[in-house]
Hints:
The chain has 167 residues and is of the alpha+beta class. Helices cover 25% and strands 37% of the residues. The protein is built from 3 helices and 9 strands, in the order H-E-E-E-E-E-E-H-E-E-E-H. The chain has helices spanning 2-33, 107-110, 162-166; strands at residues 40-45, 50-53, 56-62, 68-74, 84-91, 99-104, 113-121, 128-135, 154-159. The strands form 2 sheets. Strands 2-3-8-5-6 form a 5-stranded antiparallel β-sheet, with no helix packed on it.
Amino acid sequence: xxxxxxxxxxxxxxxxxxxxxxxxxxxxxxxxxxxxxxxxxxxxxxxxxxxxxxxxxxxxxxxxxxxxxxxxxxxxxxxxxxxxxxxxxxxxxxxxxxxxxxxxxxxxxxxxxxxxxxxxxxxxxxxxxxxxxxxxxxxxxxxxxxxxxxxxxxxxxxxxxxxxxxx
Length: 167
């Protein structure tokens, strides 16, 4: 009788409990080993306001949320590009660039989806931002910066502070 009781408890409680713990453990391991970040939101933008010419890519987008921290573009450069580029971003109403960074152009062929980081803009929601990527020395390059036709081409990412998530 006692043996029967132990078998039933194992069958109806022990095995489901073990499977639930195994599933939870594997989910936690997957979460920490993946690139998922719970405090970053991404928004895909249309390319209606993105223009490219021989040595530059320029565009505008409306920030969908506060805490703008990354702008990602999908490049179509398969051949390595020589030289350096400059990335600039600003609010459309400002006269000066908010952030300027120099980036080696070879990275655009290595990483088709390239993220341009900047200091986080806390109050960015519904603001229009303008950006530019252009070669510093156009005479060095025989190739041009080209964007991909694959969707999404322009992605804005927002990194929320942990304090906000906890609230």
